[in-house]
Amino acid sequence: MREIPGETFLLGGDLPLNRIGYGAMRLADGPEPAPSATEAPIWRAPAGRAGAVALLRRAVELGVNLIDTADAYALGANEELIAEALRPYEGVTVATKVGVVRPSPAEWVTHGHPAYLRQQAELSLRRLRVDRIELLQLHRVDPEYPLADQIGALKRLQDEGKVRHIGLSEVTVDELRQASEIAAIASVQNLYNLSTREHDPVVDYAARHGIAFLPWFPFAAGAHAGPGSPLAEVAAEIGVTPAQASLAWLLRRSPTVIPIPGTSSVGHLEENVAALSIELTEEQYDRLSLSV
Protein backbone atom coordinates (compact mmCIF):
# COMPACT_ATOMS: atom_id res chain seq x y z
CA MET A 1 0.00 0.00 0.00
CA ARG A 2 1.24 3.46 -0.90
CA GLU A 3 2.05 5.75 2.02
CA ILE A 4 1.32 9.45 1.79
CA PRO A 5 4.05 11.34 3.69
CA GLY A 6 2.86 14.23 5.79
CA GLU A 7 -0.80 13.34 5.37
CA THR A 8 -1.37 10.91 8.23
CA PHE A 9 -3.10 11.02 11.59
CA LEU A 10 -2.48 8.67 14.51
CA LEU A 11 -5.87 7.30 15.50
CA GLY A 12 -5.89 6.74 19.23
CA GLY A 13 -2.25 7.75 19.26
CA ASP A 14 -1.02 4.51 17.70
CA LEU A 15 -2.81 3.73 14.43
CA PRO A 16 -1.51 5.73 11.43
CA LEU A 17 -4.24 6.64 8.94
CA ASN A 18 -3.91 8.51 5.68
CA ARG A 19 -6.20 11.51 5.76
CA ILE A 20 -8.71 10.42 3.15
CA GLY A 21 -10.56 7.22 3.86
CA TYR A 22 -13.34 5.41 2.04
CA GLY A 23 -16.97 5.02 3.13
CA ALA A 24 -18.21 1.66 1.85
CA MET A 25 -21.95 2.27 2.32
CA ARG A 26 -22.37 3.01 -1.38
CA LEU A 27 -21.29 -0.54 -2.25
CA ALA A 28 -24.76 -1.97 -1.86
CA ASP A 29 -27.97 -2.40 -3.81
CA GLY A 30 -31.62 -1.99 -2.93
CA PRO A 31 -34.52 -4.44 -3.13
CA GLU A 32 -36.09 -5.22 -6.47
CA PRO A 33 -38.53 -3.66 -7.00
CA ALA A 34 -37.93 -0.78 -4.59
CA PRO A 35 -40.98 -0.26 -2.32
CA SER A 36 -40.86 3.52 -2.78
CA ALA A 37 -38.89 6.32 -4.38
CA THR A 38 -37.52 7.35 -0.99
CA GLU A 39 -36.57 3.86 0.24
CA ALA A 40 -33.05 3.49 1.57
CA PRO A 41 -31.09 1.39 -0.95
CA ILE A 42 -28.40 -0.02 1.37
CA TRP A 43 -30.10 -3.40 1.63
CA ARG A 44 -28.05 -6.14 -0.05
CA ALA A 45 -24.62 -6.74 -1.54
CA PRO A 46 -24.09 -5.17 -4.98
CA ALA A 47 -24.99 -7.26 -8.00
CA GLY A 48 -21.70 -6.22 -9.57
CA ARG A 49 -19.64 -7.86 -6.87
CA ALA A 50 -16.44 -8.15 -8.92
CA GLY A 51 -16.50 -4.43 -9.64
CA ALA A 52 -17.01 -3.61 -5.96
CA VAL A 53 -14.10 -5.83 -4.96
CA ALA A 54 -11.91 -4.20 -7.60
CA LEU A 55 -12.86 -0.73 -6.35
CA LEU A 56 -11.93 -1.57 -2.76
CA ARG A 57 -8.59 -2.97 -3.87
CA ARG A 58 -7.95 0.12 -6.00
CA ALA A 59 -8.62 2.31 -2.97
CA VAL A 60 -5.87 0.53 -1.07
CA GLU A 61 -3.52 0.81 -4.06
CA LEU A 62 -4.08 4.58 -3.98
CA GLY A 63 -3.09 4.77 -0.32
CA VAL A 64 -6.48 4.63 1.38
CA ASN A 65 -6.01 2.72 4.61
CA LEU A 66 -9.29 3.46 6.42
CA ILE A 67 -12.38 1.63 5.17
CA ASP A 68 -15.60 2.51 6.99
CA THR A 69 -18.60 0.18 7.12
CA ALA A 70 -21.37 -0.90 9.51
CA ASP A 71 -23.22 -4.04 10.49
CA ALA A 72 -26.41 -2.35 9.22
CA TYR A 73 -25.13 -1.86 5.67
CA ALA A 74 -26.78 -4.55 3.56
CA LEU A 75 -27.49 -6.54 6.74
CA GLY A 76 -23.82 -7.39 7.17
CA ALA A 77 -23.12 -8.15 3.51
CA ASN A 78 -21.04 -4.98 3.26
CA GLU A 79 -18.64 -6.33 5.88
CA GLU A 80 -18.46 -9.66 4.07
CA LEU A 81 -17.65 -7.86 0.82
CA ILE A 82 -14.80 -5.97 2.48
CA ALA A 83 -13.41 -9.22 3.89
CA GLU A 84 -13.51 -10.82 0.45
CA ALA A 85 -11.69 -7.89 -1.11
CA LEU A 86 -9.14 -6.91 1.50
CA ARG A 87 -8.48 -9.62 4.04
CA PRO A 88 -5.87 -10.05 5.62
CA TYR A 89 -5.99 -6.23 5.72
CA GLU A 90 -2.25 -5.61 5.60
CA GLY A 91 -1.82 -2.00 6.68
CA VAL A 92 -5.56 -1.36 6.30
CA THR A 93 -7.91 -0.37 9.12
CA VAL A 94 -11.53 -1.45 8.81
CA ALA A 95 -13.89 0.55 11.00
CA THR A 96 -17.40 -0.74 11.57
CA LYS A 97 -20.44 0.38 13.55
CA VAL A 98 -23.12 -1.23 15.72
CA GLY A 99 -26.32 0.15 17.20
CA VAL A 100 -28.79 0.43 14.29
CA VAL A 101 -31.39 -2.17 13.29
CA ARG A 102 -32.72 -2.63 9.72
CA PRO A 103 -36.19 -4.23 10.03
CA SER A 104 -36.99 -3.25 6.44
CA PRO A 105 -35.24 -1.55 3.49
CA ALA A 106 -36.69 1.85 4.41
CA GLU A 107 -36.00 1.74 8.15
CA TRP A 108 -32.93 2.62 10.22
CA VAL A 109 -33.85 2.11 13.88
CA THR A 110 -31.50 2.95 16.74
CA HIS A 111 -31.04 0.10 19.22
CA GLY A 112 -28.48 0.46 21.98
CA HIS A 113 -29.23 -2.40 24.37
CA PRO A 114 -25.79 -3.43 25.66
CA ALA A 115 -26.37 -7.12 24.92
CA TYR A 116 -27.39 -6.28 21.35
CA LEU A 117 -24.29 -4.14 20.82
CA ARG A 118 -22.06 -6.97 22.01
CA GLN A 119 -23.87 -9.52 19.84
CA GLN A 120 -23.51 -7.36 16.74
CA ALA A 121 -19.83 -6.79 17.42
CA GLU A 122 -19.34 -10.56 17.64
CA LEU A 123 -21.11 -10.97 14.30
CA SER A 124 -18.95 -8.23 12.76
CA LEU A 125 -15.85 -10.09 13.94
CA ARG A 126 -17.07 -13.19 12.09
CA ARG A 127 -18.07 -11.37 8.91
CA LEU A 128 -14.83 -9.40 8.73
CA ARG A 129 -12.94 -12.60 9.68
CA VAL A 130 -10.78 -10.92 12.30
CA ASP A 131 -10.02 -11.48 15.99
CA ARG A 132 -10.11 -7.75 16.74
CA ILE A 133 -12.01 -4.80 15.28
CA GLU A 134 -9.59 -1.91 14.92
CA LEU A 135 -12.26 0.78 15.31
CA LEU A 136 -15.76 -0.04 16.59
CA GLN A 137 -18.18 2.87 16.54
CA LEU A 138 -21.54 3.36 18.23
CA HIS A 139 -23.70 4.04 15.17
CA ARG A 140 -26.18 6.19 17.11
CA VAL A 141 -26.72 7.00 20.77
CA ASP A 142 -29.98 5.37 21.83
CA PRO A 143 -31.94 7.58 24.28
CA GLU A 144 -33.72 4.48 25.60
CA TYR A 145 -30.58 3.24 27.37
CA PRO A 146 -28.02 5.04 29.56
CA LEU A 147 -25.03 6.23 27.56
CA ALA A 148 -22.80 4.65 30.21
CA ASP A 149 -24.30 1.24 29.42
CA GLN A 150 -23.84 1.64 25.67
CA ILE A 151 -20.23 2.82 25.91
CA GLY A 152 -19.65 0.28 28.65
CA ALA A 153 -20.59 -2.55 26.28
CA LEU A 154 -17.95 -1.38 23.81
CA LYS A 155 -15.42 -0.87 26.62
CA ARG A 156 -15.96 -4.45 27.78
CA LEU A 157 -15.19 -5.69 24.26
CA GLN A 158 -12.06 -3.53 24.27
CA ASP A 159 -10.99 -4.96 27.64
CA GLU A 160 -11.43 -8.45 26.19
CA GLY A 161 -9.11 -7.61 23.29
CA LYS A 162 -11.86 -7.78 20.67
CA VAL A 163 -11.80 -4.04 19.94
CA ARG A 164 -8.77 -1.79 19.60
CA HIS A 165 -10.37 1.66 19.54
CA ILE A 166 -13.85 3.02 20.24
CA GLY A 167 -15.65 5.68 18.21
CA LEU A 168 -19.00 7.46 18.12
CA SER A 169 -21.30 8.64 15.35
CA GLU A 170 -23.69 11.62 15.24
CA VAL A 171 -22.98 12.99 18.71
CA THR A 172 -22.84 16.38 20.36
CA VAL A 173 -19.92 17.80 22.31
CA ASP A 174 -21.73 16.98 25.54
CA GLU A 175 -22.28 13.36 24.52
CA LEU A 176 -18.65 13.09 23.42
CA ARG A 177 -17.49 14.52 26.73
CA GLN A 178 -19.70 12.11 28.71
CA ALA A 179 -18.55 9.12 26.69
CA SER A 180 -14.90 10.09 27.19
CA GLU A 181 -15.38 9.78 30.93
CA ILE A 182 -16.29 6.11 30.45
CA ALA A 183 -13.77 5.04 27.80
CA ALA A 184 -11.12 6.56 25.57
CA ILE A 185 -12.87 7.80 22.43
CA ALA A 186 -10.65 7.71 19.35
CA SER A 187 -13.04 9.01 16.68
CA VAL A 188 -16.28 10.81 15.93
CA GLN A 189 -18.23 10.35 12.70
CA ASN A 190 -20.79 13.10 12.04
CA LEU A 191 -22.48 14.59 9.00
CA TYR A 192 -20.28 17.56 8.11
CA ASN A 193 -19.22 19.46 5.03
CA LEU A 194 -18.73 23.00 3.81
CA SER A 195 -22.47 23.61 3.56
CA THR A 196 -23.52 21.60 6.65
CA ARG A 197 -21.71 23.10 9.62
CA GLU A 198 -23.89 22.33 12.65
CA HIS A 199 -21.10 20.21 14.10
CA ASP A 200 -18.42 22.92 14.06
CA PRO A 201 -18.18 22.69 17.88
CA VAL A 202 -17.58 18.92 17.65
CA VAL A 203 -14.84 19.41 15.05
CA ASP A 204 -13.11 21.91 17.32
CA TYR A 205 -13.49 19.73 20.42
CA ALA A 206 -12.08 16.73 18.56
CA ALA A 207 -9.09 18.78 17.39
CA ARG A 208 -8.33 19.99 20.91
CA HIS A 209 -8.42 16.44 22.28
CA GLY A 210 -6.65 14.58 19.46
CA ILE A 211 -9.81 12.74 18.39
CA ALA A 212 -10.25 11.83 14.73
CA PHE A 213 -13.26 13.49 13.10
CA LEU A 214 -14.63 11.44 10.19
CA PRO A 215 -17.11 13.56 8.21
CA TRP A 216 -19.58 11.46 6.29
CA PHE A 217 -21.16 13.02 3.21
CA PRO A 218 -18.16 15.38 3.02
CA PHE A 219 -19.21 17.24 -0.13
CA ALA A 220 -20.94 20.62 -0.19
CA ALA A 221 -24.37 20.52 -1.77
CA GLY A 222 -27.03 22.82 -3.18
CA ALA A 223 -26.30 26.47 -3.82
CA HIS A 224 -22.96 26.19 -2.03
CA ALA A 225 -21.64 23.99 -4.83
CA GLY A 226 -23.52 25.32 -7.83
CA PRO A 227 -22.33 27.47 -10.72
CA GLY A 228 -21.09 30.86 -9.58
CA SER A 229 -20.73 29.74 -5.95
CA PRO A 230 -17.54 30.52 -4.01
CA LEU A 231 -16.75 26.80 -4.13
CA ALA A 232 -17.06 26.70 -7.92
CA GLU A 233 -14.94 29.84 -8.20
CA VAL A 234 -12.15 28.49 -5.97
CA ALA A 235 -12.21 25.13 -7.78
CA ALA A 236 -11.81 26.91 -11.12
CA GLU A 237 -8.95 29.03 -9.79
CA ILE A 238 -6.88 26.00 -8.84
CA GLY A 239 -8.03 23.73 -11.67
CA VAL A 240 -9.87 21.09 -9.65
CA THR A 241 -13.46 19.91 -9.28
CA PRO A 242 -15.80 21.39 -6.66
CA ALA A 243 -15.80 17.99 -4.93
CA GLN A 244 -12.02 18.10 -4.64
CA ALA A 245 -12.13 21.67 -3.35
CA SER A 246 -14.70 20.55 -0.74
CA LEU A 247 -12.32 17.85 0.47
CA ALA A 248 -9.36 20.24 0.46
CA TRP A 249 -11.34 22.63 2.67
CA LEU A 250 -12.11 19.81 5.12
CA LEU A 251 -8.47 18.72 5.27
CA ARG A 252 -7.45 22.26 6.17
CA ARG A 253 -10.37 22.76 8.57
CA SER A 254 -8.72 20.62 11.25
CA PRO A 255 -5.63 18.38 11.47
CA THR A 256 -7.75 15.55 12.91
CA VAL A 257 -10.31 15.51 10.07
CA ILE A 258 -10.29 12.38 7.89
CA PRO A 259 -13.02 12.57 5.22
CA ILE A 260 -14.54 9.23 4.20
CA PRO A 261 -16.17 9.90 0.82
CA GLY A 262 -18.01 6.97 -0.69
CA THR A 263 -18.45 6.16 -4.36
CA SER A 264 -19.05 3.22 -6.65
CA SER A 265 -16.92 4.81 -9.39
CA VAL A 266 -13.20 4.17 -9.65
CA GLY A 267 -12.80 7.50 -11.42
CA HIS A 268 -14.44 9.40 -8.57
CA LEU A 269 -12.40 7.41 -6.06
CA GLU A 270 -9.17 8.47 -7.76
CA GLU A 271 -10.41 12.07 -7.91
CA ASN A 272 -11.21 12.05 -4.19
CA VAL A 273 -7.82 10.70 -3.17
CA ALA A 274 -6.08 13.26 -5.38
CA ALA A 275 -7.57 15.99 -3.15
CA LEU A 276 -4.79 15.22 -0.66
CA SER A 277 -2.38 17.12 -2.90
CA ILE A 278 -4.56 20.24 -3.22
CA GLU A 279 -3.49 23.27 -1.24
CA LEU A 280 -5.85 26.17 -0.66
CA THR A 281 -4.42 29.61 -0.01
CA GLU A 282 -5.42 31.28 3.22
CA GLU A 283 -7.64 33.66 1.25
CA GLN A 284 -9.35 30.78 -0.57
CA TYR A 285 -9.90 28.88 2.66
CA ASP A 286 -11.36 31.95 4.36
CA ARG A 287 -13.60 32.70 1.38
CA LEU A 288 -15.04 29.21 1.50
CA SER A 289 -15.38 29.24 5.29
CA LEU A 290 -17.37 32.47 5.19
CA SER A 291 -19.59 31.41 2.28
CA VAL A 292 -22.09 29.59 4.47
Automatic annotation (TrEMBL):
Alphabetically ordered keywords of this record: Oxidoreductase
InterPro entries assigned: AKR, Aldo-Keto_reductase, NAD(P)_OxRdtase_dom_sf, NADP_OxRdtase_dom
Gene3D superfamilies linked to this entry: NADP-dependent oxidoreductase domain
CDD domains the UniProt entry points to: AKR_AKR13B1
Domain NADP-dependent oxidoreductase positions: 19-288
Pfam families from the UniProt entry: Aldo_ket_red (PF00248)
GO cellular component, one term: cytoplasm
GO molecular function, one term: oxidoreductase activity
Source organism, top-level taxon: Bacteria
The protein's name: Predicted oxidoreductase
